[in-house]
C-alpha cells in the first residue's frame, strides 16, 4: 500500500517590508521607531517598525493617534515604486530556484517543495534560500516550513522577526493547540466574539467541538474552521504565473470619434476593473489599454505600475496610455482596459496618499456597489451614456 507523499510547504514573509526598504536607503533608521504613511494627521499608518509597535502603533491606525503614541518616531511618506521594485526582485530570486511559487501578496510567498527531499533536505534548502534573499536584496525575511499553507503561515508569525520555524508532519494540531483562536486566518472580530462568548479561547478547545455543532453555529464556514483548528488544509500552492487578469471591453453600436464619449467609457471601464480588484482583495502591477479602429486594426499599450487597486492611480495611467494609443484620428470600434500581474494583499492598499476619509470613501463606495451593482456609484464624467 502506497503512502501519500508528505507535503512540504514554505511561507516566506518579508519583515516590516516597507520599513526595511526605507532602511536600505538610510541606515540611520536602523533600530529607530519608523512609521510610514500619509504626512498629514488625517493620514493612515501603512506600516511601522517593531520599535514603533512597542508603543502600540499598528497598520491602518490614524496618523494623528500614532503621533500621540510615539512622538519620537521617524515619519516617512511611502514609496510604492521602490516597494514594487524590491518585491519583484525577491520574486525573481525565488522563482529562479523554486519550481512552484505562489506570490500571495507584495511581501508574501508560498513555496511547494514537495518531493525535493529526495534530492536535498527541504530544511537546508529553505534556510539557504533565506540567506540568498538577504544577500541579494538586503531585506530580512522570515519563514516557516510545514505540511500545508495554513500551518506555515501561522508559524511564520511566530518566527518573526528575521527567523525561521519548522513544524514536522504530524505535529500540526499540537502546534496550534495553545494558540488563541484569532490566530486562525479568517477568524474576524465577529466570529471571535461569538466563540469567546461560548468560552472558546484557544484553538485546542475549538478543535474539540463536534463538526455538526460548528456547522449549526457558522454554516459551511464552521466546517472549514473546524478543519483548520485540527491543522487540516489541502489548499494548493497556486503558481504565480497562473494568476489571471481582470478586464473589460466594449464594442460600440456604431464607430465613433467622439472624444468625450471615449473618455467617459475609459473611466467607466477603469473604475469597474478597480472595483473588481478590491472585491477580490488584489493589487495589480500592470495596466493595458486596447483600441480597435473602424478598419479592424487593433492596437494595445501597457505599462508596469506600482502595485495598486486605487481608481485614481489606474485612471491616470489609463488616460496616459489612451493618449499615446489613439494616434490615427480614425473612428473607434472597440475600447478595453485590462489589469494583470496581480497579487493578493488589498489590505496593503496604498495608504500613503490617502487620508483616512478617502480610505473610508472607497470602502463605502464598494459596499454600495456590492449591494446595488457596479453602476450604483460612478464618477459624473463617466455618465455620458450616448452610444455613438
From TrEMBL:
UniProt-recorded Gene Ontology molecular function terms: damaged DNA binding; DNA-directed DNA polymerase activity; magnesium ion binding
Tree of life domain: Bacteria
Gene Ontology CC, one term: cytosol
GO BP annotations listed: DNA repair; DNA-templated DNA replication; error-prone translesion synthesis; SOS response
UniProt site (Substrate discrimination): 18
Listed CDD domains: PolY_Pol_IV_kappa (cd03586)
EC number(s) stated in the UniProt entry for this protein: 2.7.7.7
Cellular localization per UniProt: Cytoplasm
Pfam family, one: IMS
Annotated function: Poorly processive, error-prone DNA polymerase involved in untargeted mutagenesis. Copies undamaged DNA at stalled replication forks, which arise in vivo from mismatched or misaligned primer ends. These misaligned primers can be extended by PolIV. Exhibits no 3'-5' exonuclease (proofreading) activity. May be involved in translesional synthesis, in conjunction with the beta clamp from PolIII.
Name recorded for this polypeptide: DNA polymerase IV
Species this protein is from: Anditalea andensis
Gene: dinB
Amino acid at each position: 500500500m502506497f503512502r501519500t507523499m508528505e507535503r512540504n510547504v514554505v511561507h516566506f514573509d518579508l519583515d516590516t517590508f516597507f520599513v526595511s526598504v526605507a532602511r536600505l536607503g538610510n541606515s540611520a533608521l536602523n533600530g529607530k521607531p519608523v512609521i510610514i504613511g500619509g504626512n498629514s494627521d488625517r493620514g493612515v499608518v501603512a506600516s511601522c517598525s517593531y520599535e514603533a509597535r512597542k508603543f502600540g502603533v499598528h497598520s491602518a491606525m490614524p496618523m494623528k493617534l500614532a503621533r500621540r503614541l510615539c512622538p519620537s518616531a521617524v515619519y516617512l511618506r511611502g514609496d510604492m515604486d521602490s516597494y514594487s521594485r524590491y518585491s519583484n526582485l525577491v520574486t525573481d530570486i525565488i522563482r529562479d530556484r523554486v519550481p512552484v511559487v505562489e506570490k500571495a501578496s507584495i511581501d508574501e510567498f508560498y513555496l511547494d517543495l514537495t518531493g525535493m527531499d529526495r534530492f536535498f533536505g527541504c530544511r537546508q534548502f529553505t534556510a539557504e534560500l533565506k540567506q540568498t534573499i538577504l544577500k541579494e536584496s538586503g531585506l530580512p525575511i522570515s519563514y516557516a516550513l510545514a505540511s500545508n499553507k495554513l500551518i506555515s503561515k501561522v508559524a511564520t508569525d511566530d518566527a518573526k522577526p528575521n527567523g525561521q520555524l519548522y513544524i514536522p508532519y504530524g505535529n500540526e494540531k499540537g502546534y496550534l493547540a495553545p494558540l488563541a483562536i484569532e490566530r486562525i486566518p479568517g477568524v474576524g472580530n465577529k466570529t471571535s466574539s461569538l466563540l469567546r462568548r461560548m468560552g472558546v479561547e484557544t484553538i485546542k478547545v475549538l478543535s474539540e467541538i463536534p463538526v455538526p455543532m460548528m456547522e449549526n453555529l457558522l454554516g459551511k464556514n464552521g466546517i472549514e474552521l473546524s478543519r483548520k483548528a485540527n491543522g487540516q488544509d489541502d489548499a494548493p500552492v497556486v503558481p504565480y504565473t497562473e494568476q489571471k487578469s481582470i478586464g473589460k471591453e466594449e464594442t460600440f453600436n456604431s464607430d465613433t470619434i467622439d472624444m468625450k464619449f471615449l473618455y467617459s467609457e475609459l473611466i467607466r471601464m477603469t473604475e469597474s476593473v478597480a472595483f473588481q480588484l478590491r472585491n477580490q482583495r488584489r493589487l495589480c502591477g500592470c495596466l493595458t489599454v486596447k483600441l480597435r479602429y473602424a478598419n479592424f486594426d487593433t492596437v494595445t499599450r501597457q505599462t508596469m505600475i506600482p502595485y495598486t487597486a486605487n481608481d485614481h492611480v489606474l485612471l491616470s495611467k489609463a488616460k496616459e496610455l489612451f493618449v499615446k494609443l489613439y494616434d490615427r484620428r480614425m473612428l473607434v470600434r472597440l475600447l478595453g482596459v485590462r489589469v494583470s500581474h496581480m497579487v493578493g494583499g488589498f489590505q496593503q492598499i496604498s495608504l500613503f496618499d490617502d487620508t483616512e476619509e478617502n480610505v473610508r470613501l472607497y470602502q463605502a463606495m464598494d459596499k454600495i456597489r456590492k449591494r446595488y451593482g457596479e453602476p450604483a456609484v460612478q464618477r459624473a464624467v463617466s455618465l455620458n451614456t450616448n452610444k455613438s
